[in-house]
Write a structure and sequence with these properties.
The structure is a homodimer. Chain A is α+β, with helices and mostly antiparallel strands. Chain A is built from two helices and three strands; from the N terminus they run βαβαβ. β2 of chain A pairs antiparallel with β2 of chain B, so a sheet runs across the interface.
């Protein structure tokens, strides 16, 4: 089975996000109003071949823990979509 | 009305993504198999206050074009969710 995977890696809510803060301020400077609480993380997409959805999920979870996210500072979530 | 917005900014499919390539290779080195076509972009979340959903969408679109995405190299998509 083949799946498309989309992983979101975001800074933990408890931590400051300086990049987000700067973008937040820039919005106002550009005349774009009403926007607040900007936070910036990573969006990672890939494909995975696996025998089952459960196995694919386990592999993606391992990849997030070992490589894609730094769990001290970030949290991750992912969505799998089967490809025909 | 208040909305939560999630924007994904990804490198265009026609362009190389060196960061994705390196992660792709690292997966194999870490013993995580079956993963391919890794591409890495940005995931940006924020809140927006607006009079209507259409107005909020127009503002988010403007923010993406002016600040969040570089349309020469990236494409963007976003989802708005109303907050009660």
């Amino acid at each position: 089975m083949k799946f498309k995977v989309a992983v979101d890696v975001m800074p933990l809510d408890e931590l400051l996000d300086p990049q987000g803060k700067v973008v937040n301020r820039s919005m106002a400077n550009l005349g774009i109003s009403g926007i607040d609480q900007v936070r910036i993380g990573k969006h990672i997409t890939f494909s995975i071949e696996s025998n089952s959805k459960a196995e694919a999920e386990a592999t993606v979870d391992e990849a997030c823990k070992k490589l894609l996210a730094n769990l001290i500072m970030e949290r991750y979530s992912f969505v799998l979509t089967e490809v025909q």
